[in-house]
Write a structure and sequence with these properties.
A: 226 residues; alpha+beta; globular; B: mainly alpha
């Protein structure tokens, strides 16, 4: 009887430790460097076309690498991002940028390009929120061109400009470049992924997963006080 | 109707209650880590957003069923020469596979990068049909429980129809 309990405890401990190690591996926090080993800096990552919330001169920069078809990115956008905005972005302590990590399917790329077209008309975040609030199942067609154009109309974008931008694949290279940064330079392995760093490029950390506000609170507070 | 006599038989021994609890806790942790509801680093935190409630409920049902079914299988293994229920393996593995948002996690990333379009199709299938897969897993585990129950109690049942026909 006692022998059985001991064996059971050992088996459970092994299972739990494997789970924890898998989880920690998936959601590790590392120094973020590019393929050459040099540190990422905000000036390399944030261009004039990068959607940004808050002031880039804020002490800390949070960059999300997301996919509009990813359910966990949707969860972050609906549950956690509004709390970060309220606590840190509105007070000028943090700025938040969005980059495209389009891994789920071809419609992810179309949605990413469409969001950049909305950014041309200064409505990226409205478009972003509209897509995440009405997110459909992956690769089910909800993020195809026709539906994205309907979303553009709904949020009051100039359809002629938007359609021309989307139909001409204006932002294809930007979306592909963002994907290249995420996969080959930072080596993210899932969505949503985050790069959090001070605005001088110091203390970079990466995070992968739909973490709750408490996690971001800890990291952002450390960055702000460090 | 599922019989409860086998439950009473197995769980009258406290070791099996302990074993079932241990297995339940292990799978609870596994499902919630895979579902990105439970995080260990950088801070230990559990949260339950509204969109995750259906999967959370179904995966907990699976954890409970796996705890019961594994304990009953261990009981059978220790007390007889009967074989383990195959439906337990299919039910629990289906539950684990469908317990996470496959396409978002590193599991999906591995599928996509290693198997190309086939990996993408599998990843999408696992994500889109997550709830039906979890429900199927529950059905298989219930079937597994039913077959174990029959194994444990079947020997005490006399089949009069067969007796009459002899």
């Amino acid at each position: 009887m006692k022998k059985g309990i001991i064996v059971g405890v050992i088996v459970a401990a092994v299972i739990v430790s494997i789970i924890v190690s898998i989880a920690n591996n998936d959601t590790s926090i590392n120094e973020s460097t590019d393929a050459t080993g040099s540190k990422q800096s905000p000036s390399n990552l944030i261009t004039k076309d990068t959607p940004l919330k808050g002031d880039l001169s804020a002490p800390v920069l949070l960059i999300e690498f997301g996919d509009f078809q990813c359910p966990n990115c949707g969860r972050f956008a609906r549950e956690t991002a509004p709390l970060i905005e309220e606590a840190y972005i509105n007070s000028g302590q943090v700025s938040m940028a969005f980059k495209h990590f389009t891994i789920i399917g071809p419609d992810s790329k179309t949605a990413a390009m469409a969001s950049q077209c909305a950014n041309d008309q200064a409505k990226f975040w409205e478009f972003h929120d509209e897509l995440y609030q009405n997110q459909g199942p992956e690769n089910s067609g909800w993020a195809k061109t026709d539906n994205l154009k309907k979303v553009a109309s709904k949020i009051g974008l100039d359809r002629q400009i938007f359609d021309s931008c989307l139909d001409s694949n204006k932002y294809q290279s930007l979306v592909e470049n963002d994907l290249n940064i995420a996969v080959n330079q930072i080596k993210f392995k899932g969505t949503p992924s985050f790069l959090i760093l001070k605005n001088d490029g110091s203390l970079p950390e990466t995070l992968t997963g739909a973490y709750p506000f408490a996690t971001f609170q800890k990291i952002l507070d450390e960055k702000l006080s460090g | 109707m599922l019989g409860l006599s086998s439950l009473k038989l197995v769980f009258s021994n406290r070791f099996y209650i302990f074993l079932a609890s241990l297995i339940f806790i292990s799978f609870f942790i596994l499902f919630n880590v895979l579902g990105e509801l439970l995080f260990f680093l950088p801070v230990f935190v559990f949260y339950l957003p509204q969109d995750a409630i259906p999967v959370f409920v179904l995966s907990n049902v699976i954890s409970v069923l796996i705890g019961i079914v594994v304990s009953m299988n261990v009981y059978i293994f220790r007390h007889s020469k009967l074989k383990l229920s195959k439906s337990f393996f299919s039910g629990s593995s289906l539950g684990i596979v469908s317990g996470a948002c496959t396409s978002c996690s590193s599991i999906g990333f591995v599928l996509l990068t290693s198997f190309g379009s086939a990996g993408a199709a599998l990843s999408t299938f696992l994500s889109v049909y997550q709830i039906p897969l979890l429900v199927s897993s529950i059905m298989i585990l219930i079937w597994s429980y039913y077959s174990i129950d029959k194994k444990l109690t079947g020997s005490c049942i006399l089949d009069y129809s067969q007796k009459d026909s002899v």
